[in-house]
């Protein structure tokens, strides 16, 4: 079989790192995109020959067509796109400026749309492909102090359904993962410093524990694989039941 080609944005850390690691370990040639060259290079060294790093700021919308064309010129095709990169901001609603709000939406929504549009052009020509978007529990229910992030991730879920309707008749599946509370260095530090919040998270999670980045990676690998060939337009909570917990 021809080796599949994937793009994972934000692939040098956190959930993106785990997804890229899963892909490369399963012989998927993976381009990881991010802004920190040192982090990207270190990740690629760990992932081995199936990884290639691209230093690029996804808010540079005008540069995205050239970015995609360069990948296609190297490998001839793009089979998988994982839109993982995003930014957050914790701030009281009344303190969020218009500039704050627009900055979050521009990175988390506009960049995802522009990259997906350009990759879709390639996948339409191939008559095949899989797009996996990453949303959040912030799109499933209200979480305080993340108004802009919540708006952006709700947009991602709406875009997933709209993209699926447009692209699935052309052979391209589009799905979304809504991660719950996942154990990373950043989340662990935040929860350990706020015992009440940590207890609230765990008490409403039926499985009673945080998820691991590998849980998200496994879901992304499945959704992008041929085993999920009849799945499109779905939003899959990978959250230990947190979104339905009481």
From TrEMBL:
<dbReference type="GO" id="GO:0016616">
    <property type="term" value="F:oxidoreductase activity, acting on the CH-OH group of donors, NAD or NADP as acceptor"/>
</dbReference>
<comment type="similarity">
    <text>Belongs to the short-chain dehydrogenases/reductases (SDR) family.</text>
</comment>
<dbReference type="InterPro" id="IPR020904">
    <property type="entry name" value="Sc_DH/Rdtase_CS"/>
</dbReference>
<protein>
    <submittedName>
        <fullName>3-oxoacyl-ACP reductase</fullName>
    </submittedName>
</protein>
<dbReference type="InterPro" id="IPR002347">
    <property type="entry name" value="SDR_fam"/>
</dbReference>
<dbReference type="Pfam" id="PF13561">
    <property type="entry name" value="adh_short_C2"/>
</dbReference>
<dbReference type="InterPro" id="IPR036291">
    <property type="entry name" value="NAD(P)-bd_dom_sf"/>
</dbReference>
């Amino acid at each position: 079989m021809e080796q599949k080609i994937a793009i994972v944005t934000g692939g040098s850390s956190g959930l993106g790192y785990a997804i890229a690691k899963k892909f490369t370990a399963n012989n998927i040639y993976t381009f990881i995109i991010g802004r920190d060259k040192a982090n990207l290079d270190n990740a690629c060294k760990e992932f081995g020959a199936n990884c290639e790093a691209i230093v690029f700021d996804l808010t540079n919308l005008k540069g995205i067509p050239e970015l995609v064309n360069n990948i296609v010129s190297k490998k001839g095709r793009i089979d998988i796109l994982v839109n993982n990169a995003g930014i957050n901001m914790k701030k009281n609603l009344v303190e969020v400026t218009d500039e704050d709000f627009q900055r979050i939406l521009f990175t988390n929504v506009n960049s995802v749309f522009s990259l997906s549009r350009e990759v879709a052009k390639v996948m339409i020509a191939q008559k095949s492909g899989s797009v996996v978007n990453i949303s959040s529990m912030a799109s499933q229910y209200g979480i305080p102090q993340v108004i802009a992030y919540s708006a952006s991730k709700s947009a991602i879920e709406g875009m997933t359904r709209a993209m699926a309707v447009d692209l699935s008749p052309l052979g391209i599946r589009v799905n979304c993962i809504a991660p719950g509370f996942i154990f990373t260095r950043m989340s662990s530090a935040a929860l350990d410093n706020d015992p009440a919040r940590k207890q609230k998270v765990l008490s409403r999670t039926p499985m009673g524990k945080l998820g691991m980045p590998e849980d998200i990676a496994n879901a992304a690998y499945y959704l992008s694989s041929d085993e999920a060939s009849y799945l499109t337009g779905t939003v899959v909570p990978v959250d230990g039941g947190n979104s339905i917990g009481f």
